[in-house]
Amino acid sequence: MPLNILNPYADAIFPAPPSPPSARASFQGGWLKGNLHTHTTISDGSRPRQEVIDDYAQRGYDFLMLSDHDVVTAESDYAALASRGLILIPGNEITAHGPHLLHVHARARIEPDPLRQAVLSAVAADRGFAIVNHPNWQEKFDHCPLAKMSEWVGYVGLEIYNGVISRLDGSAYALDKWDMLLSAGRRVWGFANDDSHAPGDVALGWNVAYVTDRSTQGILDALIAGRFYASTGVVISDLRVERDTITLRADNAQRIIALQQVGKRFAAADGPELRITVPPDAKYVRFECWGQGEQFTWTQPFFIEKT
Ligand SMILES: [Zn+2]
Ligand SMILES: [Zn+2]
Structure pTM? Predict the structure, then answer.
């Protein structure tokens, strides 16, 4: 039976040359790097908003969302700050009374109702979208139980990597829950965020999105469509889908693996390139690129439909 591979990167160009600041006015499309989870002294972060923005800008980020606990950083707040060339996305981390949720592109403050489905519906009615945060934080590695994520509707994805958890209890990674959700047929994207509270938490994990319009809307469109990958350091150099094969290249990867439902690894290569044939029984396939130290990149899933 022929397979229809839903390629989230179909509209992206590999490789895309980096867009230097001088070219921003004539931006035609490219890969932009950003972090959507950041704290400042407005909640429990150690530095004021401007200092945090300056830090990310100096590190070459393209977009940033300040997401203090139950406080919206709105467009009007950003207007009082210097953007330093960053696209600043209004945000909030809905925190009290339940598992934490990012409200991306927030306008209104959403009441942290213990009934999180009500929160997700309120986010959808405001604007923007929700991401489930650090599912495997805390002593029992279960800040956000799989049962909740299976039951809820209306969120775009989850943090498969959350930087600050690497110095706290539990696991920074949530690939296990992601594969279980994907295997159950949920179409949710994987995000990597710093959740930075202090300078040492900055630039641990980020998202690289292929954006055609260098604006907040351009970034949101790419994230919602899954036209991005989550990274802690490996850069995807090329990705091609031809008939039932997918070829992935990441120049600084030392190993690339391919997985299908229930997290089953079906192919691997020790080196910067892996070419796979999509298994006939695959419901989705996704790739992990492993580099030096704790450098990874996770592609979004390619959902497979039988035609
Ligand atoms: Zn949190
Ligand atoms: Zn946080």
Answer: 0.96
